[in-house]
Amino acid sequence: MPKVLIIYTGGTIGMITDVETGSLTSVDFDVIDKHVPELKRLNIEIDTHCFAKPVDSSEINSEHWIQIADVIESNYDQYDGFVILHGSDTMSYTASALSFMLEGLSKPVLLTGSQLPIGTIRTDGKENIITALQIACDKDASGKPRIQEVAIYFEYYLYRGNRSTKDSANLFKAFRSPNLAPLAVAGVDIDYKSHRHSEEVAGNLTIHRGVSNRIALIKLFPGMNMQILSSAFDREHVDGIVMETFGSGNAPTDEYFQELCTNFTAEGGLILNITQCASGKVQQGKYATSEFFAQAGIISGADMTTEAAVTKMMHLLGNYSIDAVRSLMRENLRGELTD
């Protein structure tokens, strides 16, 4: 019988209504089958690990990512797969971060959650948990796991974790993967697609615990007062900047802005250029308004999501020298960008 460990971090999925007060309270996931009795019908041995105090997804930080990675590492050999129950608001950040932290992963690590609490009649949480558990156990004809990476399962779709982004605050189909097709679609059968994680798994699982928060995220907009960006370009406090630009990687040709960028990179800082568009990629130099970026040593983020760009930079700056980071940011480490 396959074994799966459910790691409950918090979030909407783990809430039920207190019959006396009417307020939402956290589920005791040690007895989750009381709330999802269908789990008893699955031919799966299920264990649970719960955070001592459930964390709302808006409160998630790098310490929680490390905590999740530690649980996976310490239980890696005992389970066929892992299902992480997580609030949906920052799920794509956690999935992206874990994809970089867990090197050599050869088992499924699936994040899921819900838009409605598991204690409500119309909850989407039950289907999400049940199907995520099934995917976590599925093997191919050779006996290897169908999924050997960090992924998000939500409302019938399985997405690569570092290619996902939350798309809706009120629809059950809350996530999308703008530049990569789903890894699987759950209908009458679970239809697994042919593309897989590009990393060749070799050796044992390695956990990278270094995470740097010395980065900034900037979203440009027309008519922006560039003077207010000076603190984000302060090398005393910032090592890297993820910059969301227009279209295929374009920005205003503002002299002060260009001076900020030039001085920052000259002082050893790292700037990554990603697009604000819902899909597509950065192509620096395609238009005159992006030629400056290449000249200033600004790196193209290709078609990375914001979540992947931010967590990749946090991961790299926390584990490697700035020179190594400059090179590794361009590489496809965990299937996060299209070569």
Describe this structure in words.
With about 350 residues, the protein is of the alpha/beta class. It has 2 domains: about 5-205, Rossmann fold, CATH 3.40.50; about 215-330, Rossmann fold. The protein has helices at about 60-75, 90-100, 125-135, 255-265, 290-295, 305-320, 320-330, and strands spanning about 5-10, 15, 25, 45-50, 80-85, 100-105, 110, 150-155, 155-160, 165, 175, 185, 190, 205, 215-220, 240-245, 270-275, 300. The strands form 5 sheets. Strands 4-1-5-7-8-9-12-13 form an 8-stranded mixed sheet, with helices on both faces. A 4-stranded parallel sheet has the order 15-16-17-18, with helices on both faces. A hairpin with a 6-residue loop joins β2 and β3. α2 packs parallel to α6 (about 305-320). The chain is elongated, with a radius of gyration of 21 Å.
Key descriptive features of the protein:
339 residues, Rossmann fold, single chain, alpha/beta, 7 helices, eight-stranded mixed β-sheet
CATH architecture group name of the largest domain: 3-Layer(aba) Sandwich
Q: Based on DSSP secondary structure assignment, what is the total number of beta strands?
A: 18
Query: Would you identify the CATH H-level superfamily of the largest domain?
Result: L-asparaginase, N-terminal domain
Biggest β-sheet: strands ordered side by side in the sheet = 4-1-5-7-8-9-12-13
Biggest sheet, open or closed, and with what strands and sense? 8 strands, mixed
Helix amount: 10-25%
Query: Would you tell me which CATH topology of the largest domain applies?
Result: Rossmann fold
pLDDT below 50 for ≥5 consecutive residues: which ranges?
Answer: none
| Total domain units | 2
The first-to-last residue Cα distance is 39 Å
Shape: elongated
CATH first level of the largest domain: Alpha Beta
With helices defined by DSSP (H or I, 4 residues minimum), what is the helix count? 7
